[in-house]
Write the structure tokens for this entry.
Amino acid sequence: MEAESLALSLELVSGSGLGLSPEQCAALRSSLLLLQRDLRLCRVRLWGKVLGVRGDYVIAQGNEGPDLLQGRKSFYSLNYVDWCLLPPATDSLIAETQVVKGRFIGDPAHEYEHIIRRKSGEGESADEEELIALR
């Protein structure tokens, strides 16, 4: 959804009951236009809202030039006003996130944990060790 036509677009998709309040919509529209102006982006589009246990993320993407595939930057907001740059998805980051199990918390400071099982030895003398890693 383009920042300029955000209000109309949100009305069209809010039939599922997960729409935004008028205050959230106004804050989001203003902040997306400011984000576009301040970072000199040609276009800013709202991707959607990711629901979490403690908080929700709003995701937007902007383009530095007319080419939609190059110069693309992704942003997230927790309060519909302040935007933070999302890091690009590298292969190592994707591999790290695939081991995380559980629900999305919605807190940037939350550290997800997963259990790593290591076996040492063979046969009857094999020992299994569990390590807890934080992500």
